[in-house]
Design a protein that fits this description.
14% of the residues are buried. It is built from 2 helices and 3 strands, in the order E-E-H-E-H. The chain has a 3-stranded mixed sheet, with helices on one face. The chain is globular and about 40 Å long. It has a single domain, classed as Ribosomal Protein S5, domain 2 (2-Layer Sandwich), CATH 3.30.230. By secondary structure, the protein is α+β, with helices and mostly antiparallel strands.
């Protein structure tokens, strides 16, 4: 995941993009992953600081892993990247 902060005077919701390559699987699998991640992030949008987020998926397992496990992984990643001091750990 990559994160870029928006200017401090920006009061809009975070912008989120998904990068899910063809190597992950068919369009059906890629869309399923995208829908699941969208549902997780919509539910927990209050935890996202304003900014630009890009989620990259490189394993097809994301389509078949249990929803609770995927949710825990995505939220842990969001919390690790968007730190309260406004810095980002882009090594993820």
């Amino acid at each position: 995941m990559r994160w870029a902060p928006l200017p401090t005077d920006h009061d809009h919701a975070p912008y989120i993009g998904y990068a899910i390559g063809r190597s992950v699987g068919t369009a059906v699998k890629r869309n399923r992953i995208r829908r699941r991640m969208r549902a997780i992030l919509a539910t927990h949008s209050n935890e996202l600081a304003p900014g630009l987020y890009l989620f990259g998926v490189k394993h097809a397992n994301a389509a078949s892993v249990e929803f609770a496990t995927l949710q825990d992984d995505v939220l842990a990643l969001v919390r690790a990247v968007a730190r309260p001091d406004g810095t980002a750990d882009t090594a993820s």
